[in-house]
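Need a sequence for this fold. Nothing fancy.
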């Protein structure tokens, strides 16, 4: 698991920073209307995501941001914190931005975890927060991990990322990028490609972002 940045960085420390996770959730998904309240193992999807995020050790507060009272009722009913946002938000990031404006000034790291991530690894959240605390000049960071199967490499459902020597993201694509390494091969497409070095291995993007709050609010 590797943190990558979306802007050039320099190494500074903000170990005392406070981090809040905001989970954007809306009912009006075109592909899956009502998705946040869809039951997964007897619990709503957004609740599953919330419970996983709360396991992260370096998160100070977790909020769900929504424009729907049904979601708000659920979140408040289980004793969690909800922030109401407008119906005008066109993306999850925009909803997170609006919600962050309602937080107290102590939160200077804002992590965006999508509401449909019931299996998110809490360690991923911690890794991203730790990276942001150690690198004050990183305004936006995300995560990437090696692609270990040809199926994932070719799949348009897996977002790939190319990054530079300083781990700064260069570009993202659903197409196979940057190329097919000579040591990334095998007759079994599902087989883990353990022989490929990270330097030449394709990486996939994990859809979790950490923002410096003052940058998010620009």
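Here you go.
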């Amino acid at each position: 698991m590797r943190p990558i940045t979306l802007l050039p960085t320099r190494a500074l420390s903000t170990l005392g920073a406070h981090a809040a996770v905001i989970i954007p959730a809306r009912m009006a998904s075109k592909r899956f209307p009502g998705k946040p309240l869809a039951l997964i193992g007897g619990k709503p999807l957004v609740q599953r995501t919330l419970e996983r995020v709360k396991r992260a050790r370096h998160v100070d507060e977790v909020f769900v941001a929504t424009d729907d009272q049904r979601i708000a009722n659920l979140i408040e009913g289980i004793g969690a914190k909800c922030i109401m946002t407008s119906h005008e938000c066109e993306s999850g990031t925009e909803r997170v931005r609006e919600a962050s404006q309602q937080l107290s000034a102590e939160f200077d790291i804002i992590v965006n975890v999508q509401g449909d991530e019931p299996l998110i690894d809490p360690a991923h959240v911690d890794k991203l927060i730790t990276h942001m605390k150690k690198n004050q000049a990183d305004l936006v960071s995300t995560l990437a991990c090696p692609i270990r199967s040809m199926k994932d490499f070719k799949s348009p459902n897996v977002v790939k990322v190319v990054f530079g020597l300083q781990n700064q993201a260069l570009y993202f694509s659903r197409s196979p990028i940057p190329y097919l390494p000579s040591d990334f091969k095998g007759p079994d497409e599902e087989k883990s490609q353990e022989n490929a070095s990270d330097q030449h291995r394709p990486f996939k993007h994990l859809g979790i972002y950490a923002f410096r709050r003052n940058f998010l609010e620009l």
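For context: The mean pLDDT is 87.
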